[in-house]
């Protein structure tokens, strides 16, 4: 049946195409590779998904540097003292630790195409649950277990409602925000519940090798989050599900189950954060972790996570959280009000995103130019 | 905006317009000062670079009023980039664009439209959640005092659609609800809602079935008879022979031949100027019968109301089964249902004897199925992700150990696919977004060529793929079949179905009306079968 309507086939001995008229010269190809930033050896270790993350993150480091410069200018005496600076860095990291852990979970949810407004409420519920008299009677282990189990369970409820109940994430988690705080208030009787476990309370109070344990926890969660997002099938599914759910589904990925798991993951992070926060305050109450959802979402967005899903980096989110903590710290050492601080934070959110866009474009261009001149 | 002028256009050709129309149809009517044969557009040494790619590297082009000027070139040659320069989407780095005798640079698409250049893009650029009418008039809505005049817009849209031979598409329908071909019609309606001197069509026929292409040609002839110039891009040489006047060939961003006569230039010449090599015309040979193995896929009585009814078919290991039929005959829906992307209302799908859970893609994939869907952008690609991650989207789990992905392995596999499908550029780290349309299509198909797939469901696999790469793709598919993979192929191109498949099913209105070995059918028989009956109503004679 070779006389069917013809279609072209290459003759076997055809010359190699690119050799005839190369579409791009090697130097340019190098830049192309760099734009995709995945073959490049430099920067590649912290390359998130999509490869543009690294450059975005450099912009955030620039913002951070600017904030530190402002600090150094306003308080030159303090910044001249190395021990003070070291302690201040630790203070900032400690300040960032709890929200940071929540933000890691939030980053996954947003990359996966969702949003979780209930994180603050889950932290509060988990905190209250693990400090009830009954739970505390099981000791520190029981408290930790309770907080994490509550976090995961509430996250799972969110996930089931969203993926199988087909609720819009915004609505489902908004409802959970209200409900979980309500439950927390009724469990605690609107009282502050003091933690009597020295093990728990020591988490925030102790340092190991001069660094607070809370900072280690943040580091561990960030590292785990990074590995999960960039090196595992779970992370790849997250990006696929958020980037193009239909394509993910047709590629055989179980989009619903994965979406559910993302909210459970966020819940898990909230559970961990609840222990950290309870430890810091040596108590828990229904109003704790107020507005954490906003801090976490803002940090993720500043960090370059696309609200529509499919793109984001853990490192970016971490930098976002640290930037916020640095602003708070800056205002504290300058004795300025919370109100002024909030206004500046709002401005920073907008500015950071604008700067990233601008900087990202021009940086790529700069890089392209440099490569061209050095390679040819 | 120029609606006011548009609105006062006198009605022309009232015979084809629906009864309730106002007298405001600019469609298929050239501006009064059009001179047929006059050069309207001239490009000299146009260069456009993207980071790392010289997409246009000195393009010359000359278009006359009233002609159909075809652009030919391999995937990635720069055709779409060129038309985006003309449409004001991209600005050229250097070179000159002369429009009606004057050098111009269009700052944005609106400027180009105002100058009289309307464009139908390769990648449909419709807003899915707006209605047909809103899409057709996006950016230049009929307005009075700031209010959108919906009634008028709907009427006008209905008129345009009527002229396009698709009066049945309701102007109020959400675009999301339309099939691919319907969307193509809407973007055509958008281009025709402007008063244009030049209409650019970037692979308009890629999503159209045979009769739709005829309809498109009828429209193009009407346009050119009015003195409107048309730039027409297609990878199908037969179309260029039929509709084109002159051809300009691009290769690697350069004009390699300009103003060739479309009808008389030998195919060998065209192809060698496009590809820089000679190409023979054959489908891969069919193997002798004994290579076909055991039954792999058995579909019985599959039904979805309004899409297809009582479809039974089977595919054996090593066999390529083709489905021919018009767009809207239920082919794609059938494929998606077999794959579990849609749940069947009745009937069963069996793989190697085991019944698959209806509506579960996961089950189908675990049973060894793979599907390259019809719409690459919305159904298949993660545009921001690198090529290799798109190629391995369905298989990365297979290369992973204990849940940890193996980027090196994935990259190597993707490289192999990129090589065998002639992906250009070959660098698999680039984001898919930066690939040309045809190369994106290769990524979609390539995903399932990685091995481990027992049954391949291909929905329009060569859409937008150039002649050379198309042949490569056929070879790859045939080679897979030779290894025992079953293939179920849907294509609007009847020659492709007949040339590649071993056995052909003809579908019409959701039913299989004929099944025969490919050797027993020829193109005309199939076309008669698919178009017989009610579907011929309203089609041009
Ligand atoms: N936004 C972009 N960024 C980077 N490179 C791009 C971009 N758009 C196109 N390119 C590159 O420019 C070249 C020309 O692409 P173009 O889309 O014009 O090809 P084409 O001739 O239309 O091909 P096809 O037949 O496949 O549609 C390709 O190498 C493509 O990868
Ligand atoms: Mg193109």
Mean pLDDT of chain B: 84
Please bin the fraction of helical residues of chain B. 25-40%
- CATH fold naming of the largest domain in chain B: Rossmann fold
CATH domain class name of the largest domain in chain B: Alpha Beta
Distinct bound molecules: adenosine-5'-triphosphate, magnesium ion
- Which shape of chain B, going by the Cα principal axes? globular
Number of strands of chain A: 5
Instruction: Estimate nothing, just give the exact number of structural domains of chain B.
Output: 2
Mean pLDDT of chain A: 81
Give the % helix of chain A. Answer: over 70%
Task: Please state how the strands of the largest beta sheet of chain A are arranged side by side.
Answer: 2-5
- Beta content of chain A comes to under 5%
Distance N terminus to C terminus of chain B? 39 Å
Distance between the termini of chain A: 53 Å
Q: What is the CATH architecture descriptor of chain A?
A: Orthogonal Bundle
Biggest interface goes to: A-B, 57 and 72 residues
Characterize the biggest β-sheet of chain A: 2 strands, antiparallel
Low-confidence stretches of chain A are 1-51, 366-376
Domains of chain A, number: 1
